[in-house]
């Protein structure tokens, strides 16, 4: 299977007043064409930064990016900003966590939706509006004509997320980055949006990178999962394999933090104890060691390399689960 | 709350502001430890002064006096300026001075905005880099030079040394656009430089905040060019502070351009107020201040209306509030 997106040895540093902040450290990831890959981690694990950087959307004089990104045969990291921009919309697109802040508050839905069509596909204003209405219908928005004339704040959260999806798929992208697309929504709407994304992927033959902190979202919506922690990929496997036979203590802890259905209402979300390590000062050992219940002396001293099972399952741990020690 | 009742309430608020301001000025006049009639008519018989007191309402209490003044004011009678040889109508003076001040203010605003908006956009876009630093530092330097000093430098070079522009006086538009502009260029430049610095800084700050918003990244991910993102997506939601500041400075420019009006002998409303103070023409002062207050309130209302167009959220927030 050929890779649609291939990220090699990517590191992202932010210069901050407190020193250099390592947001992403040497990440390698492949997105095979036609698949959906989940990127899972707590907030601050670097998953959003990684996606934005892969697309070339990180701006600012304090950002340092290294590594290579190859998308659909183009080496993005060797191209100019303008050249990369030409791949947006029809090549890559992105949807964001909070559609309230990701839609321009002062412009009508119609103008935000038709803009990409006009700029990227060179459609006339009238054609773009006709197409915009079709796109809204495609994301199952009733009464599309009226919605085109609305402002974002006049819609519900679920509607706004549908609008954002419509904007992202407007130019038929090959790859969709979905950055926590359901986190800002309530549970029933979450399920509808995930359902919609599944259907659109099928219909438009679109690959997807689904970024989320919620392993529950990844199950059933992705083919592969990459688990990120402290800027690194710590586990990578086909989704079914990951759930059946995980290696990383961190992945296990993440799974345990999902609230179970049989929990009585009022039970608190089981969080992983402790916090992410300080991104300006990573220790020498395993990043997860301070919070890991399997941690041993070696974990605090030596940084584990990514290991590969014969079946391709990757993990970064000295004492992986389910492996004879 | 419906739209109409919102606006009625807003207008009522502004009217109350107007009444309070004008009453305050009126009260101050009455608290002066002098006999106003003696000041206005320094050489006159006691009978003439008694007549004046009755005519202007000085013989009534502060409220009675205010109501009488207000009654005249709303009918367009702004009172008189008293000379040894007779009187002149304040309204005639303001009729002369008002268009000068208004045009001065409008040109100044246009010039300031035309320069400040691109500078603000550019320095926000390049924030922390060289272009931004150059813009910020030069504006800071510029702002630390007072307007009258700039006016004098302009006079020395453009007026005296090269003789390109007249250094004094005013020409109405009816004298020809060129003649009119020649008299306006230097006062307008002197007034706008300080505003340019303020406006650029306000817009820069708001745009830098807006540039961090997700909708900017979203716009970029649609494949839009940076300039399209800046002008079409970021400028409008970032211009609220700038608009408010511009509106407030309009009122200030109408009444507050005293120094510049004096240097160039433009003789606008600012100069009228200055003349009223130095000539102790208290009635003229009271009415001129009232006129300026009217403009302040008017421009405030204009911004209220305009902000609904710039940011539709404010429109509905008002209605739903
Ligand atoms: S290397 Fe050690 S500390 Fe890190 S996850 Fe594995 S067991 Fe835990």
Question: How would you characterize this protein structure?
Answer:
The complex is a heterodimer of chains A (325) and B (321). Chain A has 325 residues and is α/β, with parallel strands linked by helices. Chain A folds into 2 domains: 3-91 and 171-315, Rossmann fold (3-Layer(aba) Sandwich); 105-166. In chain A, 32% of the residues lie in helices and 23% in strands. Chain A has 12 helices and 12 strands. Chain A has helices spanning 47-55, 81-85, 99-102, 109-121, 125-138, 144-148, 157-169, 187-204, 215-218, 239-244, 249-256, 297-301; strands at residues 3-16, 19-32, 36-40, 63-71, 74-75, 92-95, 175-179, 207-212, 224-229, 232-238, 307-308, 314-315. Chain A has an 8-stranded mixed sheet, sandwiched between helices. Chain A has a 4-stranded antiparallel sheet with strand order 2-1-4-5, with helices on one face. In chain A, strand 1 (3-16) and strand 2 form a beta hairpin. In chain A, helix 5 (125-138) packs across helix 7 (157-169). The longest helix of chain A has 18 residues, at 187-204. In chain A, 45% of the residues are buried. Chain B is mainly alpha-helical and 321 residues long. Chain B has a domain at 103-282: MetI-like (MetI-like fold). Chain B contains 15 helices and 2 strands. In chain B, strands 1-2 form a two-stranded antiparallel ribbon. Chain B is globular. The N and C termini of chain B lie close together (7 Å). The model of chain B has no long low-confidence stretch (mean pLDDT 88). The interface between A and B is medium-sized, with 35 and 24 residues. Bound molecules: iron/sulfur cluster. Iron/sulfur cluster binds at residues 249-250, 286, 288-289, 292, 294-295, 299, 304, 317-319 of chain A.
Largest sheet of chain B: 2 strands, antiparallel
Structural class designation of chain B: mainly alpha
The CATH architecture of the largest domain in chain A would be 3-Layer(aba) Sandwich
Gyration radius of chain A, rounded: 20 Å
Question: Strand order, biggest sheet of chain B?
Answer: 1-2
Uncertain runs of chain B: none
* Assembly state of the chains shown: heterodimer
**Tally of extended strands of chain B?**
2
Helix percent band of chain A? 25-40%
Tally of domains of chain A: 2
The helix/strand class of chain A is alpha/beta
Overall pLDDT confidence of chain A:
89
- Name the helix and strand elements of chain B from N-terminus to C-terminus, one letter apiece: HHHHEEHHHHHHHHHHH
Strand percentage of chain B, roughly?
Answer: under 5%
Q: Could you say what the CATH topology of the domain at 103-282 in chain B is called? A: MetI-like fold
